[in-house]
Amino acid sequence: MDEILLTENLTMTYRVGKVDVHALRGLNLSVNPGEFVSIMGPSGCGKSTLLHILGGLLQPTSGRVIIGGEDLTTLSDAERTDLRRRKIGFVFQRFNLFPTLSAEGNLKIAEHIHGKGKPSRDNRMRLEVLKLLQLENKMRHKPLELSGGEQQRVAIARAVINRPAIILADEPTGNLDSENSKIVLDMLSRLNRELGQTIVMITHNPEAAAVARRTIEMRDGTIVKDYLNASN
Amino acid sequence: MTLETSYFMDSLVFSNIRQRPTRTIISVSGVALGVILVILNTGLVRGMLNDRIRRERGIGAEIQFTRKGSSMLSPSSVMSLDLRYGDRLRQIDGVSQVSPVGRYVQTGKSGLGFEQVDGIIFESYASISGLKVVKGRVFQNDSEVIVDEFKARQSNLSIGGEIQVFGKQLKVVGIYAPESGARIKMDLSALQTFLAAENKCTFIMVKVSDPDKQEEVQKRINSELPGNVVVLTRDIATGFGRSIPGIDGFVNAVLTLSVIVSSLVILLAMYTTITERTREIGVLKSLGASKSYIIGVIEKEAIVISMIGVAIGLLIALVAGWAIEHGTTLQLEFHWTWILTAILIGIGAGAIGALYPAVRAANQDPVKALAYE
Lengths: 232, 373
Ligand SMILES: Nc1ncnc2c1ncn2[C@@H]1O[C@H](COP(=O)(O)OP(=O)(O)OP(=O)(O)O)[C@@H](O)[C@H]1O
Ligand SMILES: [Mg+2]
Prior knowledge:
The complex is a heterodimer. Chain A is an alpha/beta fold. Chain A is about 35% helix and about 30% strand. In chain B, strands 1, 3, 4, 5, 6, 7, 8, 9, 11 and 12 form a ten-stranded mixed beta sheet that branches. A two-stranded antiparallel sheet of chain B has the order 2-10. Classes of the chains: A alpha/beta, B alpha+beta. The complex binds adenosine-5'-triphosphate (ATP) and magnesium ion.
């Protein structure tokens, strides 16, 4: 099997006081390199929990998570952090750019962390990404000087710049109007098509979900539907 | 070209320092304060001691004889040594001359520090120390004093001027050189009258006939007049630090205080910073930043702030030192070891103060941090 991401019987139980909240109940998912997968499902069905576990931000209660051949669940906290540095790019609903840094500074800090403290010498990837996301003229701007759509494009650039194995996006268009949503979705699918970037994206919007080639529907912590979108 | 901009100028560290000016100013001031404390206090202690040592050595006598319990520097003004000891000292083998000195200590004119007045018998004192009146004349009655050139310059005194001693206005009739002992000198009998201490003095200067044999003379005095304090003037240089009660404790207290001030200010500043920036720390974690990376970002920021504080503190301390030298009777002497100590304390305390916030930030739960409003 060459899947880039695989989960086996993944469960996650939060304990709130004396009550157990079963956020994931034996979830099995596999994603191949180059896939663009959207995840849909009602609020509270465990989508964000799944994404956080896939990115190593959260340790599952049981089950296995394999990213590019490495089993996340056997790793220490520091090792998961390191795996995240090497293989994962996150995109959030709230953009989460560093407000005091320019767009360029935001990209550079990602490169700096990825390069373990050494600034990257190779500009080619950065230039290609910036061109693809049409951000060449925005590099000097601070986040507050950019529109929501532009901020999210910078955040996507930051996530993709180190060529992670997978981009994990949690409702990337959730804070955008329909016009900017369309632009951001278009950028994501171009990254997927032109760079072969694997993407897993949570969304509440069926139209957004349809941009991905494959859609997964979740309910109560498991996958209830998994299908390909014909139009792509 | 924008892409070539130096990483470091655009890094989180510097942008946060620029972006939060109030916090930066407060923490810089805290560190600067610590540096100023250390430099001025150690400078004052050094200056004071060295000045006293110089003048004590200028006395010219190899041996000083005094009673147990009377310190030559502490501000006690009791004259308790009987003048008749002078005659007995003079009879000891190897002693060539003696001269009794009464010492009175008063608060400095600006309220800072203290100032001493020596009551002397002019002829014998001058013959031992080589003191000469370079302007005016010697005191001739109880209301006249002479001062040294430093005192005259600093207090703007000239012949005929007035100076306050024991709350009385005394007249300056002469200026002498070189410096030795207290900067204000009056007749010993006048001092005795003022202090109602007839036939008493504070210590007796003893000049030996052969300086190479001063230790033998010291021993002889000790055995013939036991129970008194007999010190070699050359030992006073090393002994002064200890003869001012609590001087080491004072310096240590100043050092400790400045470490505490600097590190607390940095701790508070960095603590508020990491709370404010919880989400940013979550983002750093989502990008795969290790704990040591996050600790590094916060420590670097604290150290840069500390270095700015140290630089400003140094500058202020040097300017203030100059002002103190020129505006008060206090004498300052800066020394590179103390300046270096101050720099190390400033930067070290900053680094230590930032450690707790840094470790706390590094251990934050990434999911919670990312959800922080
Ligand atoms: N830290 C937590 N502690 C306790 N319960 C939690 C925690 N995080 C999530 N949950 C619970 O786990 C379940 C799944 O939450 P999750 O955030 O994964 O849902 P979601 O599908 O992302 O929802 P939404 O579409 O609203 O973002 C919910 O019932 C939620 O209340
Ligand atoms: Mg969610």
